[in-house]
Write a structure and sequence with these properties.
The chain has 306 residues and is α+β, with helices and mostly antiparallel strands. It contains 11 helices and 12 strands. The strands form 3 sheets. It has a 5-stranded antiparallel sheet. Strands 4-7-5-6 form a 4-stranded antiparallel sheet. The protein has a 3-stranded parallel sheet with strand order 2-1-3, with helices on both faces. The chain is globular. The two termini are 25 Å apart.
């Protein structure tokens, strides 16, 4: 029987999400027939390494956010020689750095939003680009810290003064329209889901993880050309960053002036959520794969030193 250690929890702003994901993965892997070693990760790296002794056959990385999906724990596991799920050090680090990922997406000819990285002091002083625009941390996930600045709302300076995500922020044009997402497993894009955030604004942290925070339509009812483009772009983004395992790409689809409209790639997530409201398990189920089968596939495709 394969011994799988599940790392979950962590020390990022997404700890609660990771705890929820990890608990679901532990149950699913046991149902799939694996011997599971749950390891709740905190701020003591030595304790985490000790918990990985004796060395398991594989690690299921259910961590989210900084130090969990930014290449940090991946580097530790590479040094220990333990195969792990999801992407390796380089792809994980690049994907977590939104500015670096956008540069590679642009080089690959993928459709991205116009924008740039700015100093927080400069944001407090003036609008860096035309309104409306989106302000987001360069190195956070799950929409943590994302703010939309619209004409006449007078929030820019207050957002800058309250910023707790470093000295820089990524500022991008606001793309009106609809929220779409595509999961990729290996080299295969699964489906296109439309996300309807019940808050009515955008797919923020609460919409992603609160019960009833959003509704998912799969397959998305969009123009066939846009559906096909979303699948292609998600697979191309996965390749451009050198990802492995499962990823999820998030898009905005501007059909406000009519179809087919404009599809814009926002970002790629190398550690998609595995909670009851998560999108990757929904898309896998849509393709006929149960949650235990999905988790088993991830373990079977675990690797290290890539």
């Amino acid at each position: 029987m394969t011994r799988v250690a599940v790392l979950y929890g962590g020390i990022s702003a997404e700890r609660e999400v990771s705890l929820n994901s990890g608990r679901k993965v532990i149950v699913a892997l046991r149902e799939a027939g694996f011997e599971v070693i749950p390891i709740e990760v905190g701020d003591d790296l030595v304790a985490t390494i000790a918990a990985l002794t004796p060395r398991p056959d594989a690690v299921f990385n259910a961590l989210h956010g900084r130090f969990g999906e930014d290449g940090a724990i991946q580097g530790v596991l590479d040094l220990l020689g333990i195969p792990y799920t999801h992407s390796g050090v380089r792809a994980s680090a690049i994907a977590m750095d939104k500015a670096a990922a956008k540069a590679l997406f642009a080089a690959a000819g993928l459709p991205i939003a116009a924008g740039r990285v700015v100093e927080i002091d400069a944001l407090e002083a003036a609008d860096p680009i035309a309104l409306p625009y989106v302000v987001k941390p360069v190195n956070e996930g799950s929409s943590v810290g994302v703010e939309i600045i619209r004409a006449g709302d007078n929030r820019r300076a207050a957002v800058a003064r309250a910023w707790t995500f470093g000295r820089e922020a990524l500022v991008e044009e606001y793309i009106p329209g609809r929220e779409l997402t595509v999961a990729v497993m290996g080299d295969r894009p699964l489906a296109v889901t439309e996300i309807l955030a019940d808050a009515g604004v955008f797919y923020d942290y609460d919409s992603k993880y609160a019960d009833g925070g959003s509704r998912h339509i799969i397959p998305a009812a969009v123009h066939p050309d846009i559906y096909a483009q979303a699948l292609r772009v998600a697979a191309a983004a996965h390749r451009a960053l050198g990802c492995r395992g499962a990823t999820r790409c998030d898009f905005r689809y501007d059909d406000t002036a009519g179809e087919p409209g404009r599809l814009v790639l926002l970002e790629i997530n190398t550690q998609p959520g595995l909670t009851p409201t998560s999108l990757l398990p929904e898309q896998a189920a849509h393709m006929g794969m149960s949650f235990p089968q999905l988790c088993a596939w991830m373990v079977e495709n675990a690797a290290c030193r890539e």
